[in-house]
Design goal:
Blueprint (H helix, E strand, L loop, with lengths): L28 H21 L4 E3 L5 H6 L7 H8 L6 E6 L2 E5 L9 H4 L2 H17 L8 E4 L14 H13 L2 E4 L1 H9 L5 E4 L2 H12 L4 E5 L4 E5 L16 H18 L2
Parallel strand pairs: 1-8, 3-6, 4-5, 4-6
Antiparallel strand pairs: 2-3, 2-7, 7-8
Helix pairs in contact: 5-6
Length: 265
């Protein structure tokens, strides 16, 4: 965070959380998770009261959060609960690409059952609303990424794209399902404002290839703005002054930009 703030930012920044444990300190997972969890609760409370215009969260160790009793798949779901169990969606943005995940942290074997028409439609509606309200895009162009290779190739490689995804695309009035090997290229070329990805790794891989180290996680659907860097805790280099602050810097800049756009109405 200190590296990310070395350059001036057009926003007032308030650090929430404990600085009592310095580099090299040893905490149990439960202790570390409790500190992180309370910081998230405090930041969300500030945003819900209107004391801050946006929150930017750092990487957290999910195992530590679970050990401290915060049993959520990730901060997206944790923040949704703190905001009143509102429906949310996870967007990853880098360079000219915005990707929204229909499912997030699931084993690959569980994805086909989790990708339902209703779930895709909900994620799509949240995304379309966010593109209008947060990015000011009057008529968002959204595409749906296929689940199977070549969008199922007429049923040869699975029927989920025709049976589940195409009805969702029709309901939303969006393009797709389009094969994963072309839809992200089309978005990068400016044909779409965002892409709905059916599962975590197909969407995350596209974003990280498009802008590794500069991606930003944005939680859509919350009553406040939340961004985060798109990387993990990197314990292997913790305390060595080797971390690249680019993604955190991008998260701070995007949060400030979205907050300014919201204040202008």
């Amino acid at each position: 965070m200190e590296k990310a703030l070395q350059q001036s930012l057009a926003a007032d920044v308030r650090i929430v959380g404990s600085r009592e444990q310095g580099a090299g300190s040893t905490l149990s997972d439960e202790e570390a998770g409790r500190i992180a969890g309370r910081a998230i609760e405090d930041a969300a409370a500030l945003a819900l009261r209107g004391d801050v215009d946006a929150i930017v969260t750092g990487p957290v160790h999910k195992q530590a959060l679970h050990a401290a009793g915060y049993r959520y798949p990730g901060l997206t779901e944790f923040l949704a609960h703190l905001a009143g169990d509102v429906p949310v969606a996870m967007m990853l943005a880098a360079a000219k690409l915005r990707v929204v995940l229909v499912t997030t942290h699931l084993p690959l074997k569980d994805v086909p059952a989790a990708v339902t028409t209703e779930r895709v439609v909900e994620a799509g509606r949240i995304t379309l609303d966010a593109l209008r309200r947060m990015w000011g895009i009057a008529a968002p162009r959204l595409a749906l990424c296929a689940l199977n290779p070549h969008a199922g190739e007429g049923g040869l490689f699975g029927d989920e794209d025709e049976r589940i995804l195409r009805p969702a695309a029709r309901t939303l009035g969006i393009a797709g399902p389009l094969p994963a090997d072309t839809v992200f290229v089309k978005a990068l070329r400016g044909e779409f404002d965002a892409v709905l990805a059916p599962y975590h790794d197909v969407g995350m891989t596209a974003v990280k290839v498009a802008g590794f180290g500069t991606g930003v996680n944005v939680t859509l659907g919350l009553p406040f703005i939340r961004t985060a860097p798109d990387h993990g805790t990197a314990f292997d280099i913790a305390g060595r002054d080797r971390a690249d602050p680019a993604s955190m810097r991008a998260a701070l800049e995007l949060a400030a930009e979205l907050a300014r756009r919201r204040s202008r109405g």
